[in-house]
Design a protein that fits this description.
The structure holds two protein chains of two kinds. Chain A has eleven helices and ten strands. By secondary structure, chain A is of the alpha/beta class. In chain A, the strands form two sheets. Chain A has a six-stranded mixed sheet, with helices on both faces. The two termini of chain A are about 30 Å apart. Chain B is mainly alpha-helical. The longest helix of chain B has 30 residues. Chain B has two domains: about 150 residues, no CATH class; about 70 residues. In chain B, helix 8 crosses helix 9. Classes of the chains: A alpha/beta, B mainly alpha. The interface between A and B is large, with 39 and 32 residues.
């Protein structure tokens, strides 16, 4: 996927959030001044307990939720009403439940949906779809109905659907949740092979150690810690204070 | 199309008919049905011709009568009406096995029964050889309103998901000892339906969010390149209504 790298705006971070605040309509503060950045091509893990605001934060990256205050910048472009469309192309969002993400009647159509919305047609569209299917090694599933695939296959297809628009940043919400160990392994290998910045929201801390050099820990809508994964995940007291732990038998160093 | 698309009326085969483009089949079946429906009921030869044409179609499509006949039950209400007509219609009577029957009613009943059965069989031939996404795409090519075909597509796509949720909910209730026997025990079931509605609504919102995340702004993009159907394809598909045209002409010549 060399053309993905070409897409990255020279030097600008793939994602920059600053002073992000968000209240749900019922008044609950979900985000309380978030500052976070992901460099071009970098893989960053976003961890935290249930209800910490991880998914809410992720939904801000492509304007599906709009902040009460603060700025979202993707590849140097500030999110506002005029850039919304461009930002949505630049941020590939992989939802937690593939059942929500895959809504067309065949895998091929689902993968074509994004690029077609951004104006691609005919042979160009076909080529883009084929490339995305090949990158995720799901070419053989092209004519299958997405809702009849296994969980692992669905997850790969879901990633293909967003990769097809050549994003500058992939945002993945709990990509390994509900996968069997072999599917999880394949997914990790795939993510490692993708040459695009990634923000991975997860509870799968061993995967974080494997994939993400840097981890951001959020709790109660705030960034509590931000640093190298090996250091952050070795801090047992910090993890325990935020309802996290490495599974039995794992060590951060 | 690979495995897994199938609906209960689909027959898994690889016949010539299965491989015809859906829009061509829709046109063929629609024309055939229109020709059957407008044939004067006294033109017995036209109906005989229609039956032969359909049987050939079924044969080529490898759809067995054993599959077709039970599914024709859908026309039963019309058949009941058709059977009653000779008894209730007024006018000159004729004796069949000693029972006086109205001649006009007999013709009327025959007309209804023949048209209902032939029309339904033609539709069944279409759906038995066409998978739902293809059928919807075919209707789109025939300029059916995209909004309607898209609604149908989403309905088909999420019906299974919702049915799955219903059965999981029922199982969870049963696992906790819920076994309704009386009307007043139905309350949890209706409450469950309410929950299901809310969940489906929320799923709708999530799906919409997923669509917006990929640049959706209110209209579905055209995804697959449409290849125009060749003359040969049209010839094969239109053989069905063509046979019917021949039968109609023959009937006019014979019956006058």
């Amino acid at each position: 996927m060399t053309d993905i790298a070409a897409n990255e705006a020279g030097g600008a971070p793939a994602l920059e959030l600053s002073g992000l605040r968000f209240h749900y309509p019922d008044g609950t503060a979900a985000l309380d001044g978030i500052k976070l950045s992901v460099a071009a091509g970098e893989r960053v893990a976003l961890v935290g307990p249930n209800g910490a605001g991880k998914t809410t934060l992720a939904l801000h990256t492509n304007g599906l939720l709009r902040a009460d205050a603060g700025t979202v910048r993707v590849a140097g472009i500030t999110l506002d009403d005029t850039t919304l469309r461009d930002i949505r192309r630049r941020v590939g969002f992989v939802f937690q439940d593939a059942e929500d993400q895959l809504f067309m009647s065949s895998v091929r159509e689902d993968v074509a949906f994004g690029p077609a919305n951004h104006g691609l047609r005919g042979d160009e569209l076909d080529a883009r779809v084929d490339a995305a299917l090949a990158a995720l090694e799901v070419t053989h599933l092209a004519d299958r109905a997405p809702h009849h695939l296994s969980g692992g296959e669905q997850r790969r297809v879901a990633i293909a659907t967003v990769l097809a628009v050549r994003p500058d940043l992939l945002v993945l919400d709990e990509p390994t949740a509900g996968l069997d160990p072999a599917s999880r392994r394949e997914l990790i290998t795939t993510l490692r092979g993708l040459d695009v910045a990634q923000l991975i929201v997860t509870h799968d801390l061993p995967m974080v150690l494997e994939l993400c050099p840097r981890t951001v820990l959020v709790d109660a809508g705030r960034v509590v810690a931000n640093g190298p994964s090996t250091e952050l995940l070795a801090d047992e007291a910090l993890l325990a204070a935020h309802r996290l732990e490495l599974p039995f038998g794992h060590a951060a160093r | 199309m690979g495995a897994g698309h199938t609906h209960p009326l689909y027959v898994h085969e690889h016949s010539v008919v299965h491989h015809l483009p859906a829009h061509v089949k829709v046109v063929a079946v629609f024309t055939f049905t229109a020709l059957v429906a407008t044939a004067p009921r006294e033109h017995l030869l036209a109906f005989a011709g229609a039956t032969v044409a359909l049987l050939i179609g079924l044969r080529v499509a490898r759809v067995r009568l054993r599959f077709l006949l039970p599914r024709l039950a859908v026309v039963t209400p019309f058949l009941v009406g058709a059977v009653l007509l000779p008894f209730v219609a007024s006018g000159p009577r004729t004796e069949v096995l000693g029972i006086p029957l109205a001649v006009e009613g007999l013709w009327g009943g025959f007309g209804i029964a023949a048209r209902a059965i032939l029309g339904a069989s033609a539709s069944l031939l279409l759906v038995a050889t066409t998978e739902v996404p293809d059928l919807l795409r075919g209707l789109e090519r025939l300029r059916a309103p995209r909004l309607l075909t898209q609604i149908a597509a989403f309905m088909v796509r999420y019906l299974e998901v919702i049915v799955g949720e219903v059965s999981r909910q029922r199982r969870a209730m049963t696992a906790r000892g819920y076994d309704p026997r009386w009307l007043w025990q139905l309350r949890p079931l209706t409450a469950g339906l309410g929950v299901l509605f809310v969940r489906s609504y929320e799923r709708g919102e999530r799906v919409h969010a997923a669509m917006r995340a990929r640049g959706f702004e209110g209209s579905m993009p055209v995804l697959l390149a449409e290849r125009p159907a060749g003359a040969r394809v049209w010839t094969v598909a239109l053989a069905l209504p063509a046979m019917m045209v021949v039968a109609r002409i023959a009937a006019v010549l014979v019956h006058g």
